[in-house]
Specification:
Layout: E1 3-6, H1 12-19, E2 23-26, H2 34-38, E3 42-48, H3 55-59, E4 66-70, H4 79-85, E5 88-90, H5 97-112, H6 115-123, H7 126-130, E6 143-147, H8 151-160, E7 166-170, E8 180-182, H9 185-191, E9 194-197, H10 211-217, E10 222-225, H11 234-243, E11 248-251, H12 262-265, E12 270-272, H13 281-301
Parallel strand pairs: 1-2, 1-3, 3-4, 4-5, 6-7, 6-9, 7-8, 9-10, 10-11, 11-12
Helix pairs in contact: 1-13, 5-8, 9-10
The structure holds ligand A2R.
Length: 314
């Protein structure tokens, strides 16, 4: 059986299916020096969007044919190097669109309706001792700017329809949709109530939500990030929230996960989630299924179901 390097975890169902076709080597359990000595035996890698494949590991696998990534974001995998070496890279698009969209809207609603503040209010007995809490803002009839109107961005727009939302968007190229397109992110931020970030990570989106964009969003504005922590300048975000230049933030992703700055943890106008955009039993099962299907299909006939765009022609 071919040798597969498993980076990070895998569900029992994935492991059952993989172990029927591959000899699995778990990176976390390998003795030091193993890769240097036996790296040439590894032809397949299964990893996830967070761990990706470190450059030193990729370099230690001279006969690698394929990397299957559990997750749609693959910014932790060097696809330029993969293409150069003829290594196929796959990911798990589409199966998580609806779940990540739900997470984005959950964060947005929690910000508008002060879900965490009101929950704490009831738990602390303040409803009884102090009466009704202050009013919140309505999430209905807002203008929402989607940064990255791709598969997930479109699912977010679809799911926001019942709230009477006006959708606008920014990406590098306009899409074939009826929503207003902005070619400039700051201009869009100025015109919207909420900005939802759902681009890929990587160099082209690094800190594109900067101090200027947050100031344009403004004191009544809400920033939701369900993309990658790298997309938002976290230091500028903290400053904007502390100074009142930005009103609220709902964050599922952070610059140095799982580390979340103490300043963010202490703020009442922030809703925090531990990168759980797609983390439901149902969606993770679908992602795991596609991760394994890609590997098994490549093993069977050299083709795959969902290559990353850079590897579509390999
Ligand atoms: O820029 P375009 O026209 O290629 O549109 C894509 C947009 N996008 C960007 N927008 C502004 N500045 C950039 N530098 C930039 N780079 C890409 O993001 C497209 O509209 C969107 C990405 O859509 P999809 O490729 O369909 O990705 P999907 O499945 O929606 O997932 C997005 C990300 C993942 O990469 C993970 O990081 C995260 O959601 O879970």
């Amino acid at each position: 059986m071919p040798d597969l390097l498993l980076i990070g975890g895998a569900t029992p169902v994935m492991l059952d299916r993989l172990s029927a076709a591959f000899t699995i080597h778990r990176l976390a359990e390998l003795p030091s020096g193993w890769l240097a000595e036996h790296g040439d035996t590894i032809t397949y890698v299964a990893t996830n969007g967070h761990d990706g494949v470190r450059p030193d590991i990729m370099a230690a696998l001279p006969n690698l044919k394929m990397i299957s990534c559990y997750g749609v974001g693959y910014d932790a995998i060097d696809t330029d190097e993969a293409v150069k070496r003829g290594i196929m890279v796959t990911h798990t698009p589409n199966v998580l669109n609806a779940e990540v969209a739900t997470t984005a809207i959950l964060l947005m609603l929690a910000c508008y309706r002060e879900l965490l503040r009101n929950d704490a209010y009831v738990r602390a007995g303040k409803w009884e001792s102090e009466g009704n809490p202050p009013l919140t803002r309505s999430a209905d009839n807002q203008t929402v700017g989607i940064l990255g109107l791709g598969r997930i961005g479109q699912a977010i727009a679809d799911k926001l329809a019942p709230w009477g939302t006006t959708i606008v968007y920014h990406s590098r190229t306009p899409k074939d949709v009826s929503y207003r397109y902005y070619d400039n992110l700051t201009d869009m931020a100025r015109d919207v109530d909420t900005l939802i970030c759902i681009t890929p990570g990587g160099p082209s989106t690094n800190k594109i939500v900067n101090a200027e964009v947050m100031a344009a969003l403004g004191p009544e504005g809400t920033l939701i990030n369900v993309s990658r922590g790298s997309v938002v300048d976290e230091a500028a975000l903290i400053e904007a929230l502390q100074s009142g230049k930005l009103g609220w933030a709902g964050l599922d992703v952070f610059e140095a996960e799982p580390k979340v700055p103490e300043a963010l943890r202490a703020m009442p106008n922030v809703v925090l989630q531990p990168h759980v955009g797609s983390a439901t039993v149902e969606t993770r099962a679908a992602m795991g299924g596609l991760t394994v299907d890609n590997l098994l299909q490549h093993l069977a006939d050299g083709s795959v179901i969902s290559p990353v765009p850079e590897c579509a022609d390999i």
